[in-house]
Automatic annotation (TrEMBL):
Residues 586-649, 721-783 form the SLH domain. Residues 45-68 are annotated as: Disordered. Residues 45-55 have a biased composition (Low complexity). Signal peptide: none annotated. InterPro entries: SLH_dom (IPR001119), YcdB/YcdC_rep_domain (IPR032599). Pfam families: DUF4901, SLH. This is S-layer homology domain-containing protein.
Length: 785
């Protein structure tokens, strides 16, 4: 499902579902990152070692599976998995369940699936995981094998190349998914969200393929295959089993579709985060031209634009927002305890009197984030079904989210039809709540509810509020409220605040609307694809939305070959992304300043593994001297390519100040924190790390001793003849570390001198990390932890 193609008012209801979904694909805002499900996660259901074909088969979702639908036996499914994964020759089948595809993450697929649980014993250690096989087609749907089962991890350099891994993956898919044998598979590059393999640690190729039907690509239907550097398949996921497709011949031609895209596209100015971070107030803002209405799916048979629910979009007028009539005192932020937050939520939310508070946890905020209370209510202390969950900003008292868990046994029992709350009453309640419980509530505008802007999901009504500043929309800053038939809160999601408005006041558009439209049109092309919609449930009612496959034209980014999500900067005129540089870490493009450089191989390897990221001009400046902070960052990225991305969790729990000169505002904060978590550094708020100082070769050698885990051994190497024989040995502060670096071949002496006070360039550092990666399999402990 393409969230960008859902109208704002519908999008919120879908997001509520996503926040609560169990066993489905994870989705990010604007575009989808596909992940392999966690091995070992089991669905609640009836266990069955063997099932008689003459009896109805138990299923944990609907209760019964028609045995006539089962074409593949349990034994056949298990034999297939063992054949595909030879490492399972000694594995034990600990459990087998017959479930519906929905429970296996096959959204909208009700075909029966064999879910087989496996156990592998290694001495006193036991590993458990599961695999899913379609009981209709015999397709392997998912398998994730824990890494500790494979005795030989593959470090850099890998035994198989990326191209060889691609060929192995294609052959594996041919055996694993028989129903795809007549279809064409195309590798998906994922330029919008690259999967980067760390330079330090086992090499894994995360490969993705897009399937086609009758020669037409299937948007969003991806096959994921992870292959180790040894050429072994370790993870697999396929979400396209059991789908039905309409005819592949369109009534609308490609030329007609492109003309309609040009005719219907209308842009408007909006403030857009320049450094988007999930659920955090951005530090920088841009002014950009964005579509008034997201036009992402054009039905190839009817010529109608549709949204993510496959509903017709009315493009005759843009969405309208209603200003709120401010009444009473505005909300004043104040710290709250868990008990105060619980009391406040209980006055407005649908929490039955019989429910008890099951948990209240304070999550400490980092990098400027506020502390948040995570609260949960349930029927009893042991129930994980049909609960209520909330997040509250502990420093401001603002409710950030609230939702009803509707999953597990009897999940939809409460979804019986009840008199709907009149929209006028819903608007009155919701408007008053926004004004009285949200900072700067009067700056939010309600999406017009005169037509279908308020989703009527069963007896619940959802309203959406959008933040505005100087009459311009502030992208990603919005709130959705869902009220039940009694006017009680049953769903709430928010992205609050925009920080200081000073930089917004300075943004003035220099690009004309027609110039922006021309720029956007020249950056896109229309492609014919099958678009998948539905296959999920609306929240909070749990109302299922069936899967629909539609033959449609979609705008594709010419530069990246993926669905178009970029905007036009109203000042620079450049095409920009909400997520910054789309090439980002892991790009394979070679920078312009390393082609004839002596360290070209090491530099290109560092780029491919996210250790170095080319700048806007495509350069990495290999001869630039680096600082201590630069080195720390490069090593951290070599171990974990996403360590400095604020949208990812980072290693360990950090103090607000790691060193006297490294606090939460430092650009090196996350990388230094990673080093502390691995034991390479020890936090000391009274000492200085000097991250901005240029690093010397002597200090670099000392850090290498820490990274390799031989720091204590290096002390004993301090009197080695090879070091004492150097011309500049008396100037070396860390002789043992230098000896270690020389013996491991990580650093070199030149003409009998080590040059301990010499500087280190980007190329020098990349070369040393490249050498370290090549010998990591010979070290006594892993570099990446």
């Amino acid at each position: 499902m393409n969230e960008m193609s859902i109208s704002p008012q519908r999008r919120r209801s879908v997001r509520n579902y996503r926040a609560n979904a169990v066993g489905t694909l994870a989705a990010a805002v604007l575009f989808v990152f596909l992940t392999v499900p966690i091995a070992g996660a089991e669905s609640a259901g009836m266990s069955s070692s063997a099932t008689s074909a003459a009896e109805p088969m138990q299923n944990s979702s609907s209760g019964i599976i028609d045995p006539s639908r089962v074409k593949i036996t349990e034994e056949q499914a298990a034999a297939k998995v063992r054949e595909l994964f030879p490492v399972l020759k000694d594995a034990q089948m600990s459990d087998t369940r017959l479930i519906e595809g929905n429970e296996s993450g096959q959204m909208g697929n009700n075909d029966p699936v064999w879910q087989i649980s496996w156990t592998v014993q290694r001495g006193n250690h036991s590993s458990g995981f599961s695999s899913d096989v379609s009981a209709v087609t015999g397709d392997l749907l998912q398998m994730g094998i824990p890494s500790d089962i494979f005795s030989e991890p593959s470090f850099y350099p890998p035994k198989v190349s990326k191209q060889q891994a691609l060929e192995l993956a294609r052959k594996f898919i041919g055996k694993a998914v028989p129903s795809l044998q007549s279809q064409t598979l195309q590798e998906t590059k994922f330029k919008y969200g690259l999967t980067v393999t760390p330079l330090f640690g086992p090499i894994v190729y995360s490969l993705s393929f897009q399937a086609s039907h009758d020669g037409v690509k299937i948007q969003g239907q991806s096959i994921q295959v992870n292959i180790s550097g040894n050429g072994t398949v370790t993870n697999f996921y396929y979400a396209g089993s059991g789908l039905s497709f309409p005819p592949s011949k369109p009534k609308l031609t490609l030329t007609e579709a492109a003309k309609q895209w040009e005719q219907d596209l209308k842009l408007t100015l909006a403030y857009v985060p320049a450094d988007y971070q999930w659920n955090r107030v951005p530090e920088k803002w841009s002014l950009a031209y964005v579509p008034e209405i997201p036009l992402n799916v054009l039905d190839a048979q009817t010529g109608q634009w549709t949204d993510g629910l496959n509903q017709k979009l009315d493009i005759s007028k843009p969405y309208t927002y209603v200003a709120l009539a401010a009444t009473g005192e505005p909300y004043k932020s104040h710290p709250v305890t868990a008990e105060e937050a619980i009391k406040s939520i209980s006055t407005i939310a649908d929490i039955p009197e019989t429910y008890k508070v099951q948990s209240k946890q304070l999550n400490k905020g980092r990098n400027g984030e506020h502390d948040t209370w995570h609260l949960r209510w349930g029927k009893d202390n042991n129930s994980f079904y049909d609960g209520r969950s909330a997040q509250v900003d502990a420093e401001t008292g603002v409710l950030l989210s609230f939702y009803v868990d509707r999953w597990g046994p009897g999940a939809n029992e409460e979804a019986a039809e009840k008199p709907a709350l009149p929209k006028e009453k819903a608007v009155q309640i919701a408007d008053a709540w926004i004004l009285g419980h949200v900072p700067d509530g009067a700056s939010y505008r309600r999406l017009d509810t005169s037509a279908d802007a308020a989703i009527q999901d069963s007896s619940d009504v959802t309203l959406t509020y959008q933040l505005f500043y100087r009459d311009l929309m502030v992208q990603t800053r919005n709130i959705s409220l869902t009220l039940n038939h009694e006017g009680r809160l049953v769903g709430m999601n928010s992205s609050l605040g925009m920080g200081s408005t000073e930089q917004l006041d300075l943004l003035k558009a220099t690009l004309k609307p027609e110039e922006a439209k021309s720029k956007m049109l020249s950056s896109t092309q229309m492609d014919l694809v099958y678009v998948r919609s539905g296959g999920y449930s609306l929240s909070p009612s749990g109302k299922p939305i069936p899967v629909t496959m539609t033959l449609a034209y979609v705008p594709i980014d010419r530069e990246y070959g993926e669905p178009f999500y970029r905007m036009v900067d109203a000042i620079s005129g450049k095409m920009v992304s909400l997520y910054g540089n789309l090439q980002g870490a892991g790009t394979s493009a070679e920078p312009t300043d390393i082609q004839s450089h002596w360290a070209r191989t090491a530099l290109q390897t560092a780029i491919e593994h996210g250790v170095l990221v080319p700048d806007a001009e495509g350069k990495v400046h290999p001869n630039k001297k680096i600082t201590t902070g630069d080195l720390i960052r490069m090593v951290a990225l070599a171990s974990s390519p996403y360590v400095e991305n604020p949208n990812y969790n980072y290693y360990g729990a950090a103090a607000e100040k790691l060193y006297a000169d490294v606090d939460e505002k430092s650009p090196y904060y996350r990388s230094v924190n990673y080093w502390i978590g691995t034991g390479w550094l020890k936090a000391d708020g009274n000492e200085k790390l000097h991250p901005e100082a240029e690093i010397t070769r002597d200090l670099l050698a000392g850090y290498l001793a820490k990274i390799t885990g031989y720091e204590k051994l290096s002390v004993r190497l301090g009197t080695a003849a090879s070091v004492s024989g150097l011309k500049d040995s008396k100037a070396i502060v860390n002789p043992g570390a230098v000896e270690l670096a020389l013996r491991l071949g990580l650093m070199n002496a030149k003409e009998g001198s080590f040059r301990p006070q010499g500087n280190v360039t980007v190329a020098d550092a990349a070369t040393i990390l490249y050498r370290l990666a090549r010998i990591q399999g010979e070290l006594d402990r892993p570099l990446s932890r």
